[in-house]
Amino acid sequence: MILIIIKPLAKGNANMSALQHAAQIDTTKISARSPLPWPVIEGGKARTEGEDALLALQRIGSTLRFKRNETIFAEGDRSGQVYKVTSGAVRTCRVLMDGRRQIVDFFLPGDFFGLDWQDVHSFSAEAIADAVIVSYPRNQIERLGETIPGVQKRLMAILCKGLALTQDHLVMLGRQTAIEKLAWFLVRKAERLHADDRPLELPMSRLDIADYLGLTIETVSRGLGELKRHRHIAIASGHRIAIRNIEELRSLANGETGD
Amino acid sequence: MILIIIKPLAKGNANMSALQHAAQIDTTKISARSPLPWPVIEGGKARTEGEDALLALQRIGSTLRFKRNETIFAEGDRSGQVYKVTSGAVRTCRVLMDGRRQIVDFFLPGDFFGLDWQDVHSFSAEAIADAVIVSYPRNQIERLGETIPGVQKRLMAILCKGLALTQDHLVMLGRQTAIEKLAWFLVRKAERLHADDRPLELPMSRLDIADYLGLTIETVSRGLGELKRHRHIAIASGHRIAIRNIEELRSLANGETGD
DNA sequence: CGCAAGTTTGACGTACATCAAGTAGTGTGG
DNA sequence: CCACACTACTTGATGTACGTCAAACTTGCG
User: Fold this and answer.
1) Whole-model pTM above 0.85?
2) pLDDT digits over B131-146, tens only?
3) Could you identify the residue whose CA is nearest to the C1' atom of nucleotide D19?
4) Coil, strand, or helix at residue A104?
């Protein structure tokens, strides 16, 4: 049985994790393991293509397990694999000599990463929480792209989406205030994780959030406190944050200075 | 006659402009118009592919002219074209409601832009200086990708390069100081424009630089003054800046706090 | 339960923004 | 060729958002 996952297109700042579209060419365990709220439909026009791709992918993928904070690949490593998160969470980041760190992206179950297509990784990837990762040799993926119609195009789409998301990240880092950055982060995560109003389960620490937003832990903590005081969010406990007023957050995230 | 341009791979922070690799499938006017210092070789393995692609590209491209500060496309416009800078310079940026602006990238002669492959542009593109631009309908490019072997792969490479560069930009914006940002900018431009020690011709204004680096004009001006005082650069006049000590700049740019 | 790691809160410092002149380029018309 | 205006850039004085340092509090795991 083939399942095709289609993510509803978010208006404005799309939140779709960089490589997520790729979920369209696998999908077996996703619905079983991860809390994905996107509509899941069966078969359809892409059935045959999808089936071929799925079978081929299953054949070439190998499963890996990583513990919290374990490195999946390091900056400078020769890159030849594409990875997909099955469970847990992953961050990609770069660290400067004096310890300053910038997190480039977070990846949750269903997301692909390591699609750099460069000969050497310019970032490292680490498990945020204990994670199960499937890796696919790049040349095999390439071969798949040459033999199975549509795969190439799909890869392009994934990359373009990733580029667009990274550009959003850029604007946020360059021109938004601490509170706006936090609102942006929460909105992005809320749209990625679910549409309803249960608390978000954020696997990453305050430090991870800070290094993603170009802030410090203290500023993140104070900012979350501020948003909580204004009743835009509720902090259930540590990593569980509930969105109470997503529209207000959204307008903050879009720089509408809606103090 | 077919010319293949090969850019020497920069170590560490690559400087290749996002879409520059695409120069490999055109090239006619580049050597005549722009000061490209990269080795230019003829023919080679890709000759036939390149020739096909070149001819096809020439057939589908149309030339446009823009004056300084004129808009090429705006955020929200339906996107269906891919563009290449022939002469002049282009910036892509996003502006928040209250006027804050983030420049995402600069494009110089030979660079491609607008390869978003999304249905709507999430950024606007404007001419920094009077510019001549060639535009290609995207569906034609896509068709080219389907019929001519290697084009698809080339497009992928361009996108990946663009993604990597945007990620570099991200780290800089999130974690570097004003001086480091300026050093990073100068190094990137120096590597893009030429290897020798003539002054850089920077078409963009201080405001453009500020909005690219997430700073203000005043900070950019003070930073350049500082670098000049330390003899790392010399400011010939406004837009002409000479690099005097690129190694020092490079170590600043890499966050080695070499003050 | 107890400890270590993670998070919050407070007091204070600073890098960069903001506000405000002043100066140097650049183009236009006499 | 110079006077004029206009825009771009530089420089200085001051403000502030966020970083830094430090201590208390909370959380979660053995």
Assistant:
1) no
2) 999 999 998 888 888 8
3) A216
4) strand
How, if at all, do strands B200-201 and B101-107 pair?
Answer: unpaired
- Is residue B6 a contact partner of residue B39, using CB atoms and an 8 Å limit? yes
Give strand letter and number of the nucleotide nearest A222 (CA to C1').
C8
- What are the tens digits of pLDDT across the range A200-209? 999 999 999 9
**Tens-level pLDDT at each residue, chain B (259 residues):** 433 333 333 333 333 333 333 333 333 333 333 333 333 333 344 445 556 666 677 778 999 999 999 999 999 999 999 999 999 999 999 999 999 999 999 999 999 999 888 899 999 999 999 999 999 999 888 888 888 877 888 888 889 999 999 999 999 999 999 999 999 999 999 998 876 668 899 999 999 999 999 999 999 999 999 999 999 999 988 899 999 999 999 999 998 865 4
Q: Which of A117, A211, A256 sits opposite B160 (nearest CB)?
A: A117
**Cβ-based burial of A70 (10 A; exposed 0-12, middle 13-18, buried ≥19):** exposed
Output DSSP code: residue B239.
Answer: T
* 3-class state of residue B12 by DSSP: coil
B166: nearest CB among A116, A152, A166: A166
Per-residue tokens: A235: 């902090």
Three-class SS state of A4: strand
Q: Are B152 and A152 an interchain contact pair (Cβ–Cβ within 8 Å)?
A: yes
Query: In one letter, which amino acid is A103?
Result: I
Query: Hey, how many other C-beta atoms are within 10 angstroms of the C-beta on A71?
Result: 12
Collapsed DSSP state (helix, strand, coil) of residue B213: helix
Phi and psi for B96 in degrees, rounded to 5?
Answer: -80, 165
Q: What is the DSSP code (8-state) at residue A7? A: P
Q: How many residues does chain B have?
A: 259
Structure-token pair, residue A217: 């832990």
